[in-house]
Amino acid sequence: MKKKAVVSLGHQALGYTTMEQRDAVQITAKALADLAAAGYQLTITHSNGPQVSMIHKAMTELRRVYTDYTPAPMCVCSAMSQGYVGYDIQNSLRAELLSRGISQTVSTILTQVTVDPYDEAFYEPTKIIGRYMSKEDAEVEIKKGNYVVEEPGKGFRRAVAAPTPINIVEIDAIRTLSDAGQIVIACGGGGIPVIEQNHILKGASAVIEKDAIAGKLAGDLKADRLIILTSVPNVYRNFGTDSEEPIETLTIAEASAYIEERQFGEGNMLPKIEAAIDYLKAYPEGSVLITSLDRVSAALKGKAGTVIRS
Question: What DSSP assignment string belongs to 54-91?
Answer without folding.
Answer: HHHHHHHHHHHH-TTSPPPPHHHHHHHHHHHHHHHHHH
